[in-house]
Fold each of these.
Amino acid sequence: MAKEIKKIAVLTSGGDSPGMNAAIRSVVRTCAYLEIECVAIYRGYQGMIEGDFKPMNARSVNNIINKGGTILKSARCLEFRTPEGRKKAHDQLVKAGVDAFVVIGGNGSFTGAMIFNNEFDFPVMGIPGTIDNDIIGTSYTIGFDTAINTVVEVIDKIRDTASSHNRLFFIEVMGRDVGHIALNAGVGAGAEEILIPEQNLGLERLLDSLKRSKKSGKSSSIVIVAEGDKIGKNVFELKDYVEEHLPIYDVRVSVLGHMQRGGNPTCFDRVLASRMGVKAVEALLEGKTNYMVGIRDNDLILTPISEAIKGHTPVDEELIRVSDIMTT
Amino acid sequence: MAKEIKKIAVLTSGGDSPGMNAAIRSVVRTCAYLEIECVAIYRGYQGMIEGDFKPMNARSVNNIINKGGTILKSARCLEFRTPEGRKKAHDQLVKAGVDAFVVIGGNGSFTGAMIFNNEFDFPVMGIPGTIDNDIIGTSYTIGFDTAINTVVEVIDKIRDTASSHNRLFFIEVMGRDVGHIALNAGVGAGAEEILIPEQNLGLERLLDSLKRSKKSGKSSSIVIVAEGDKIGKNVFELKDYVEEHLPIYDVRVSVLGHMQRGGNPTCFDRVLASRMGVKAVEALLEGKTNYMVGIRDNDLILTPISEAIKGHTPVDEELIRVSDIMTT
Amino acid sequence: MAKEIKKIAVLTSGGDSPGMNAAIRSVVRTCAYLEIECVAIYRGYQGMIEGDFKPMNARSVNNIINKGGTILKSARCLEFRTPEGRKKAHDQLVKAGVDAFVVIGGNGSFTGAMIFNNEFDFPVMGIPGTIDNDIIGTSYTIGFDTAINTVVEVIDKIRDTASSHNRLFFIEVMGRDVGHIALNAGVGAGAEEILIPEQNLGLERLLDSLKRSKKSGKSSSIVIVAEGDKIGKNVFELKDYVEEHLPIYDVRVSVLGHMQRGGNPTCFDRVLASRMGVKAVEALLEGKTNYMVGIRDNDLILTPISEAIKGHTPVDEELIRVSDIMTT
Amino acid sequence: MAKEIKKIAVLTSGGDSPGMNAAIRSVVRTCAYLEIECVAIYRGYQGMIEGDFKPMNARSVNNIINKGGTILKSARCLEFRTPEGRKKAHDQLVKAGVDAFVVIGGNGSFTGAMIFNNEFDFPVMGIPGTIDNDIIGTSYTIGFDTAINTVVEVIDKIRDTASSHNRLFFIEVMGRDVGHIALNAGVGAGAEEILIPEQNLGLERLLDSLKRSKKSGKSSSIVIVAEGDKIGKNVFELKDYVEEHLPIYDVRVSVLGHMQRGGNPTCFDRVLASRMGVKAVEALLEGKTNYMVGIRDNDLILTPISEAIKGHTPVDEELIRVSDIMTT
């Protein structure tokens, strides 16, 4: 029979994403509401190994729901990938009287939690916090909505100056393996073309599309390029290629980079994080373990971590079609 | 047998909402892509009655995806509620060679379209554009996401000054019949209490909650009040009541009003509108009529208008619970 | 001979304004740079009387430059207006070894400091922090630039929906005695008419102007009304009056209220606050007292508090003229 | 005796900047107010040569005050640098009955205007529109305030993620010849170090400063680098250098690029542009020519173009000192 859970730890791990603080706050406040003890673990699994813990109460998380980043810090931790590292972490948890933990992060963080659970039969629960929105078992990850708004707002600004000068812009956005940010922000920003890792449309099609766009009288063109796109050229090489093969355009490049991870979370991300935090704590108290919390439409669901970490959510084919139609 | 559809009209009707322009753009571009003619109708049903039409092509909707409001204007139209008014409107459509129309709006606009369809067997399709998110048949209406972000951003600002002065704020947000904006923005903004039309928690509970909040050491309190809340006092009366019964607080009121309807649409609203516009045109071409386009999770669905207009979407009970837990 | 200054206190007093935190940070860091001790006083003069002090070092003010409100809290304090209250405050300062203080606030706060200085020969220095921009001796007060941007952003949103419905909006902004916010934000937002405390243009002129605006084909009208305007009607009475005398308009009202005091400070306010904090500390160390720091063009200047508190800065006549021309 | 001016042309030239539309609107409305004819010239001097003109009235500039970019488009034009090109331009102006023009742009644009004036005795007036704020004869250029706010907002976002990971960021901002953007945005964003073209602090000092910052317990470091900084390494080389010589940091780079030119103008830029437009038209009507409009404190002033184009405004030494103190 499972041990009763009286103290829950919460940590953030891997790359940070906007809304992580709202999720931390939710875990802490749900514990307070249910009269369970709660401790924060700083700097992800590294802090777990080092015992960098701090008791939390409802007031510890005042005024953080609207802050980007994570007040618990995050870090990637090689040591936790070793049995010795995990042993140390387990010792620290036992010493601190922790009965279960909630980890907010992505696939790598969940994999660590799953192995830890398997080794020590220690209750764990995952909350998907990543801007990439690529995790199986949820329609939305915490931070994605904020990231696509950040991208769209920047492209709106670039469009101002692009239109004033009849320019073509290649804009690189995050997404090494998946094109969710590129596709959604591209449709939202009215991009003329969107290059994602899931498709290789080829350079010929790109040139054709740009020619058509120019001919149709558009005063500027924006091409969104996901980091991991498969066209075989990075965004600077694309600029050179197009300037050589399509000299009608004055081409510029913008690499958006890390600003996409920051910023005050949107209302959507704050609400999503608040809901997931409640669900994570309640699921642990119901004796569930080794799951990730997700959302489907308006329902919170649980997916075994073993399934959640199998690859990436595919991009929406229907949205690719919408994107094609919109660039008519 | 249904007449082949060669020309589609698009109009916005009722209160405007951010993202309507993205929906107009999508209808127009989908027509262009499918090589169907498209005409815009200005000023809603009033413009339909008066024949205020304009042919649209793909370039007519350049640079509007990021603009709030509606380039087609909107208006409430009493004449369309009469058989004579609708007869005039039908004559204008026939004269202009229009075979079907897409109306972007709320329940009132859909009811008009349904009656029109019943009277003239004229193909119609609805797209839900309202900030209230209360329309049956869709998880999200166009404009809701932008509105809750506007509210949350304003409350973030008010929180700054409230915290600096240990103040209590009553903030009135839109929602005459439904509390979706209040509940979501309230959870997103970390409000201490949320008053919605669907619940009457009573004044006693409000006082208790505020006393508890003060005692727990919070430096400020924000209470969100939906316009149509059932507590029996408007937001200014609430201020007086609390100042009389709970003199520990310095109380202020803020009525957010029409700013909630405006602003550049969020990425979510732009993408949603783009998808719905494609679906609306394609459904008409497939011979569907008298439906409203909606979204469930990531799937676009059709609901008969006769069902969509039956009342309002209830608020999410689970989210009310999350709200209670978060204010611990 | 003046006593050498080795420890400086900093407080915020009166209404808060965005950028106060940047000014606090600047005072604290300048002390650290010059190897002077620094203490914070919480809750304005009330905290001074109660000895609510905290030692500060350069790290105490990390990550506050971009936050609205004031981390030191603010309060209005009646007791400091009495000789007994000021005596208590002086005792607390002496007990804590404080040799001088910098007060960030408005006229009321400076008056208190001046009286205190006169009574105890205690070195004081003022930094103008108020959104009203009405303090003699400086072209800009900390918070004004943020406030006018907040107002303009909200009006941009309201304009969206006003244009979609051909509406007239009366928008009340802060400014009981002065029209700086109304005039600057009104010009910035392209308002059709601006009503300020310094002028009474009369209701007739307002009606004429609105008629002309309607006739000229504008799709919406925005009238900015400062709280203290002299037209003899509040913003709701104005609505009734115009609806009665000019029935061609659908009129709406929006009272912006306290959101104008909050929000992340603009770059201008952050830089201004940073510069003023340095100047305040350096002036005290040079033996200056009873001055307020101000800015003229790009030069920091000192004005005796006795002059700074004499009335309000008048509005710029040339800008009123620009406003008239812009509404052609 | 000077010819009476009955028709004024307005154009934007060179790189665009936010607020140019507000300046265009102001020139057009001032002409309308003073009952002078006004024509717009599209695409800068290129459009002048090609006669790409359009008559403007007060309504032509509705709803543009809040838009980034320039509705008149801009372009760099080599042909205008030749006597033949200018001759063509003059012929077009004469043919269109234009008596004077206002050019909104930077040094290059003003030089062209001055030469044109010298050759044809044609009245010209300059309005400084550039984000660089480097033009002699004015404390502020149109667009600078918006640009520094854009930079600060982005750095606020990057700070979120930098703090969560204890990272060092090199952020490149615009400024090939001058450090105004870097210095102001750097102070506003609380940057730990600011590298500008006007100073070469040397790599040693940079390393020392970063070591000190790390030691003092800061959770992240932001270094702002102006494009034209003189440290002898670009931003990517700096990253490599620091990673090699200071392995305690995980370093990232962000090049902000063209987003700095776009975006809705701030209230400051809109008001400044409105005032300068009025002044430009009135100065022409008073018989002034070959001047640039500028602002000193709150006064609009005129500077002969021949002086305005002599080099760049130096950065404020006092602000460099503030910047040093703030990074204590």
Amino acid sequence: MSDAKIRLFVDQPLGPGQPVALNGDQAHYLFSVMRLSRGAAVLLFNGRDGEWRAVVAEAGKRAGILTCETQTAPLRLPPDLWLLFAPIKKARTDFIVEKAAEMGAARILPVQTRYTNADRIRQDRLQAHAVEAAEQCGGTFVPEVAELQPLDRLLDRWPAERRILWCDEHQAGQPVTLATLTALPAGPWAILIGPEGGFAAPEQARLAGLPQVVQASLGPRILRADTAAVAALTLWQIAQGDWRESPE
Amino acid sequence: MSDAKIRLFVDQPLGPGQPVALNGDQAHYLFSVMRLSRGAAVLLFNGRDGEWRAVVAEAGKRAGILTCETQTAPLRLPPDLWLLFAPIKKARTDFIVEKAAEMGAARILPVQTRYTNADRIRQDRLQAHAVEAAEQCGGTFVPEVAELQPLDRLLDRWPAERRILWCDEHQAGQPVTLATLTALPAGPWAILIGPEGGFAAPEQARLAGLPQVVQASLGPRILRADTAAVAALTLWQIAQGDWRESPE
């Protein structure tokens, strides 16, 4: 454990003695909100170089410099799992992104389906939510949030080797059991969560016909999309992902 | 499937020909917000008599009467699982209650720990969230949300036969694996989610010493309490609960 309480995501490279210049928001947060001063320790990560203990070398009102000292954790990449979901109401979309980052998805892909209400997302805001979740959950990696894209177009160029766990609350599907989870083949995966109105018939037909797709039903109650996302990520992580390993 | 789109929780008994008088809020919702008129169909449930198709017999501004016709689903009780959690920020506490109802917890018990910030909850508001979640998820049961009570007092009279799955993100614990899940003994259970600051040392010692307690670690990242609640409910449901059965 480090004496530093604050974890901060930065864009710059991290390494021994490496100075890290803060932007105005970061300086404001560290020095005005959290009241850190010269010599205080912060944990930094950039999604590439693991986690580093850094100390405040210069503290200004809207600027500052930290100096990296020692690595406190190696880079820990999440398993090769994407989360595809149809954006819903703002608060719940934010929530899905936060939860996907906490649960260890490697990429987050908002998709537009026939019954998706949103025709745009604030990608930058969602990405910021993923950063915040990574800062909070102790991760050293931040999943990329992609721009909103039509599901059909994404499926047109879908990689042959990436399987899709398709969770559609309005479809029967196979109920997920411990046996199905154990039998899931290894390799790259994506979880696809349906929109609130379900998938349109042509979408259903297309998905059902894809060889990569495994259809799954999540219990006897109809879950909201945000609940379904966390539940599906949990099941995949324990079956195939990094929940199988012991924590350090 | 019924022609009725709206599901409404009511307190009254439900049965063939049974008239159900609406309160002012319910009448406002059905007739002013949703614009239903005489003869329109609604699905009713009360947590005891299953789900019934009812039709509007009288529609007024702040009152109305529905008449039950036929049962559309039997009562489906959730498994005997309690969720214990330390209330956190308002929005996340609301969220935990909503998710617990969706995920099929039978009782929801907010508990006060040494590091719990909240010293009161709005039990009526949380109960209303559980009702709304049940209306939305197609359930025929509404879990009771208990009043906030100190964890210590709850443990003083803890039933000998009810096991506790203790998820504390600040404790090592045994990582939950598919094997541990399969080996969980049957019977009444509770899930205990730690507060954001973790448990105090005396609480940890007490919990660790209880014969009913199984300690669990949920993956390598630190989950927020609301994420941990959904993840733990998912794992328990698939191992011990009603996710093992096929949906109708």
Amino acid sequence: MARDGLPTLRIAVVGTGLIGGSVLRRLAQTEHEVVGWDLDPGTRTTGTDLGLAFADRLDDALAGRDVVFLCGPLSSLPTGLAEVVAAAPKHCVITDVGSTKMAVAVAAERAGLAGRFVGGHPMAGSERAGLAAATPDLYVGAPWVLTPLGVPGLPAFRLLARLVLESFDARVVPLDATVHDDIVALASHIPHILAGALATATDRSDVRAAVLSLAAGSFSDGTRVAGTPSARTTDMLINNRAAIARRIGLVRSALDDLVDAVVAGDAERLLSCLSEGRHARLDLLARHTEPASRTFTAGESYNEELTYLLELGASGGCVTGCQIDGDRVTYAVLKPATP
Amino acid sequence: MARDGLPTLRIAVVGTGLIGGSVLRRLAQTEHEVVGWDLDPGTRTTGTDLGLAFADRLDDALAGRDVVFLCGPLSSLPTGLAEVVAAAPKHCVITDVGSTKMAVAVAAERAGLAGRFVGGHPMAGSERAGLAAATPDLYVGAPWVLTPLGVPGLPAFRLLARLVLESFDARVVPLDATVHDDIVALASHIPHILAGALATATDRSDVRAAVLSLAAGSFSDGTRVAGTPSARTTDMLINNRAAIARRIGLVRSALDDLVDAVVAGDAERLLSCLSEGRHARLDLLARHTEPASRTFTAGESYNEELTYLLELGASGGCVTGCQIDGDRVTYAVLKPATP
């Protein structure tokens, strides 16, 4: 029995690179029984050498599991999901850790898995790759998005929310899959594109060596994620191209405003535009939230609970606790507050 | 006598915010005799409270000084330079720490100061501001650009190079002022514009709170310098608008390439473009340099020394040591090398 009453679970982590490996290493420190599997035999050996439980065959990893974390490359998730469903027990709850959520949600709904599959996206990472770079503390304090597929997904959502909160010390952000993809276009994908643009322009420039020699913090921070393995970034960006296309105009328009003001020497307009951005940046550093809680009883509809959760996430809030007591569920949450 | 034979100098630091304050705090740890001055009486009090020597009047700060660091806001430098020249001894060498070098170089040449003024730009900073944020170690290991105004500036360059190397543990990058401004457009100013564009677009977006809630490392790093006081960034960008205008096209073109490939779902083209950028990023993390040295004797022309230094800096190299032995000067340098 884990703290707050979550039973000990039998968990499998399928795909153990940086992200899945960090999930596995964290769970290995808890009272849950966890096993890893990776397509690459070398990774399985590395894992065993690190003292982690690894299965040699996917079937063996999945047998008798209560929860499966599907952590392969983004484009492999729909196929991987079908493989897991074929081999895992019928009661098994499945989640993933992919950085876009629509494609896998569509695949899960088509396969009739709305009651068993809840998409996930732990919002932390690194420009490094592989199990050797994995660390059990990667997700501590980070937002972890969960995207239930409607009302049928609520029981699985509750289970995963408790697991994420209790075992990872992360914050759960409930979101509709489409809304998630729209938000991360700005919160993650376009930042990768901007970093790539700066690094690529430098690579192509006739002052490349001198720029690298003089690069201060602004350049170094602004290109950090350009060091991410390019195939991984490509996979992520292509998978979310619709949302990126919807949101890139906003960033290009702000860029135009800034560049136009600079080139025109219009200090007043430039200051105004930079101040808007500084406002958002300072709010990021000191986010103002206030705690609240909400209990749902058997008398209330699941629809009400789902709506509450999705609106909470979309408005910038998160779940910090989930207690189940008979037919009552109580969510402790943080809501954005005006300072 | 300092190490490597630099005599003990009487130094004034005029303007003691983040940058000047860090210069002052560092020099206060050396054997040089240093005094600070700031236009703001509150800053002078803060400095005195921190145990730093401060003068109440600019004249007092400048009397009998061998070297002056002019560290006020960028746009104030030409005026500040005239004030310093009026009050400092005739032999006094003057440098500044501004992030663009053309405007102050033009002002110095017009004032006939080519033999006494060498522009400077220590390439480290912080999004914070003020003397309280200043730290003596800010420049350790950082590139510190020095821009001699032709052959007449060489003796002053040598003095400042030794001071920067010995007292700040920085690397000296000799550059022509125009070349400097062109390089920092890419190495610092355009990164500030990109960070501003991302932060401003977020501030304007209808999913602002959710984006800030989900922001992972890529967003946080990509907006860090958007937290810089906006007036300081405005001053810096406006002062270098010509070079920014010359270089922004390269970044926009790379951005277009990336966005076009994403929107078209062209994974192959996207991977190729991201890989170019990753190449530059990885070179930034593991710059390959090789040590060399060069001695100039009285028989060689100053022109030759100047050309050597400026080519070294423009090619991505730097000076790591400067020894003067009678009429010989020996530079220890690092040159970019192919891995």
Amino acid sequence: MSSSSAAARREGRAESASGRPPMRQALVAAAFRLFVERGYEQTTVDDIVALAGVGRRSFFRYFPSKEDVVFPDHERCLADMTDFLAASPEGAEPVRRVCDAARLVLRMYAEDPSFSVQRYRLTKEVPGLRAYELSVVWRYERALAAYLRGRFAGRPDGTLRADVIAAAVVAAHNNALRSWLRSGGLGDASTEVDHALGLVQSAFGAAPAATGPGADSEDVVVVVARRDVPLWRVVQQLEAVLGRG
Amino acid sequence: MSSSSAAARREGRAESASGRPPMRQALVAAAFRLFVERGYEQTTVDDIVALAGVGRRSFFRYFPSKEDVVFPDHERCLADMTDFLAASPEGAEPVRRVCDAARLVLRMYAEDPSFSVQRYRLTKEVPGLRAYELSVVWRYERALAAYLRGRFAGRPDGTLRADVIAAAVVAAHNNALRSWLRSGGLGDASTEVDHALGLVQSAFGAAPAATGPGADSEDVVVVVARRDVPLWRVVQQLEAVLGRG
């Protein structure tokens, strides 16, 4: 459950299953019905409000433009992500934390699979929506990078590492998300996303993991060996690194 | 030197230092002078052609829209990148190869530092240009990912790994490129970019390096251990993984 829908529930506001207030939800439903039937470009805001049975002003109260009705939940999700990262415990492993933040986006998509699949198909067909989506993805990536930059401040290559990890997390998340959307939103999206984010954590999680108090990258030893190297050579090398033996 | 400017030289066509034909170069120069003096939004295509002393048709022969004149070399650079990746030797280490492909973008920026710095400042100020730039960056990323997907085809997590590495390469390249642009285009951009791409190669280069004939990821064993774990536990674990002992 997102924090904003939780807040709405606490305040006793009526909400649809998608977490959107009813009139907003009616506008989104009308818009998507028309986009699918007539095409995105051929649908006007007037068509949408006529089908939803509300006035133009109601539309623009919720959405600055026709494009925004295609992505009705991203602003809420971006706010949830920012709140989540700001509330991170000091000792949280940073790469794991941004992976968990990315899962909030997945949860938004998984809340309403058929809507998400419809939008995915629409976005692939309309270049303007593709551009809009890229700018949304960029904002998620910058939110993750900003958190990591704070956590890696003062470390060598801190901003570089932050930017690279944020991009890798977004790419992994979107690879798994798109695969789920292409499949028609069937099955459990989170298993695939967990697996994808695991790849990023294994590539980048080790070094930043050693940032907590009392931990140090010196505490971790990494050994990479070819299978055909004799075990005694590996142990010898380990002893040399550990300063024992 | 890019392959397209090399081709122009072979054909004896006149070219400016930036690798652009003279009339195209005159249009770009006129456009940027006006963008800086009046602002991007306040400058029309008519203003640009008047200053350059050419007709409107000449403008649209080179540029589909006003936005395109801000990024006059990306299409050439994208084509160069695609050619470069298509011409990759079969045994090329894939992560190294996409890093080298990314360096083609850097070279384009470094060909004309003052122009690149002007554009960087303009792009930061004009939201429409920012969106345009995101779509260009996305196309570079997909070109790198497409090559990697081909190289990793049939491997577990091949497309996932390809997408993550492509995103990481682009993020590292752009982190270093932007730092150079922010500094006003002073000094050698390539040192910083090499360092940034080195981080990606060290994170991802090892596993895909084992793709040559006769090599297999099964051949490599990676052990990560905390320093405070007794050596015998590490050796025990190694023996278990290697199936010996």
